[in-house]
Amino acid sequence: MKPEVPDTHQKALQVNLDALLYGTFAEIGAGQEVARWFFRVGGAAGTIAKAMSAYDMTFSDAIYGPCQRYVSRQRIHSMLDHEFRLLCERLDAKRGEKTRFFVFANTVAASSYTRQDDPHGWLGIRFQTSPRKAPSQIIIHVRLLDKENVQEQEALGVMGVNLAHGACYLHDQPEKLLVALLDNLTADRVEVDLIEFSGPDFASVDNRLMALKLVQNGLTNAALFTARGEVMQPADALYKKNLLIERGSFRPVTNVTVDMLRCAQAMFIQEPGVESESVFPLMEMTLKNLTDGDTIDPQDFLDRADILGALGRTVLISNFGEYHRLATWLFRHTRKKIGIVLGVPTLREIFEEKHYADLEGGILESFGRLFKNDLKLYAYPLLDAASGSLISAGNLSVAPHLRHLYAYLIENRLIESLRDYDNACLRVFSREVLRRLRSGDSTWEGMVPEAVAELIKKRKLLGYVDGTRARRSGKGRLGLVDSIHLAGVPTAA
């Protein structure tokens, strides 16, 4: 039986009745909605040292320092820094030995008569898990999805209580804390598209894995992190960027993966208004790409993330099975050009109408959404193993009644064949590479970038088996194996 979720009143009261907890609430925008909960349930005098707001920009700058944007990651950090330092300076001598200090802060832009922007905000808490211990910190970014300002404020208050309660009582269970952020809320009201854990109590927490958990648990449909593993807020990261996306399993990254992006970028930067320095490449893994059977292996995911990081790539984790859903999400964050690079097998699959049974307008509605703005598909060719024929976007066969639609997209350069590809890469398939690296067949090393091969061997990623040891123990099947065609593999190279 699923455990009963405590309501917001119970959570706030539990914090207030905890004699060890004492702290500050600092809120900018959307009212004092979080502090209001703690005052309303009673017992706040034993919990709240100070509750404040600094709506006016001049006052806010005087307290926290100047800032380009008031609803930003920079501002939430400066708020937590200032308030926690002040709390310790003024109260440590008096009650530091018996108190777990905390500071809760948020900076939010809700709907108003004058604002038409997407309502969103940053929430954070810096806290001690024992008296005078170095503090830890949790920061989240939320999108407020309600239609009315009052409802947005209510959702913000509940979310803030969930974050404060989770930090106090679930800090040793980060994933449970993450899921509890939506207690007494729904994903239709609030989206959490970034969460960042830091500090001594989260030394073993990998924020890349937490980004995956956000998507996996339905708090958001997509999350981003850099090659260095730093989580990113999508609206900030993608704003006014020309985006080039490659979807795959990256298990592992192969020479095909690199060649696809190289060819696409060479063509993409020739588009009007696109310059090489303005192109932001993204490597996308969907939950389907990551699922093995019915589960996602966290270590397998982190292995792939490490490999992409070794190549300096930003990673997008998404729950977008259909490309038109990915496109809709991208259009929300940039009005610049978007390129999606894919293999011919995936291009063929996009033209299978069974994937659009849930859309009233079927495949036409899907394509209307996909190509609504300035988006283009770049197709990497496929060498057919059976016939030896090269299949490209130019000669791909689709269902007879869709030929005119396909011809229209080709003629208007919404779908283009990639040029100047490396012929040697056409015989490389990621599943075969994975099989070889797990069987001790060292020939896989020539099928992946050198940096990838070195990292896999050094850290024994993806189930790597040392070929030398395999030979010594009599295990493993060595020798060059002819590359074989595995349906759909080039799209997940």
Q: How are the elements arranged and paired?
A:
Layout: H1 8-16, E1 21-28, H2 33-40, E2 48-53, H3 57-64, H4 73-95, E3 100-109, E4 120-127, E5 136-144, H5 149-169, H6 174-180, E6 190-198, H7 207-216, E7 222-225, E8 231-232, H8 234-238, E9 242-247, H9 255-268, E10 279-286, H10 287-290, H11 298-310, E11 314-318, H12 323-333, E12 338-343, H13 344-350, H14 362-370, E13 375-380, E14 382-383, E15 390-391, H15 403-411, E16 415-417, H16 430-439, H17 450-459, H18 467-473
Parallel strand pairs: 1-2, 1-3, 9-10, 9-12, 10-11, 12-13, 13-16
Antiparallel strand pairs: 3-4, 4-5, 5-6, 7-8, 7-11, 14-15
Helix pairs in contact: 1-5, 2-5, 5-6, 11-17, 12-14
General description of the model:
The protein is of the alpha/beta class. 38% of the residues lie in helices and 19% in strands. The protein has helices at residues 8-16, 33-40, 57-64, 73-95, 149-169, 174-180, 207-216, 234-238, 255-268, 287-290, 298-310, 323-333, 344-350, 362-370, 403-411, 430-439, 450-459, 467-473; strands at 21-28, 48-53, 100-109, 120-127, 136-144, 190-198, 222-225, 231-232, 242-247, 279-286, 314-318, 338-343, 375-380, 382-383, 390-391, 415-417. The strands form three sheets. An eight-stranded mixed sheet has the order 8-7-11-10-9-12-13-16, sandwiched between helices. Strands 2-1-3-4-5-6 form a six-stranded mixed sheet, with helices on both faces. It has a two-stranded antiparallel sheet with strand order 14-15. It starts with 7 loop residues before the first helix and ends in a 20-residue tail after the last helix. Residues 476-493 have low confidence and may be disordered.
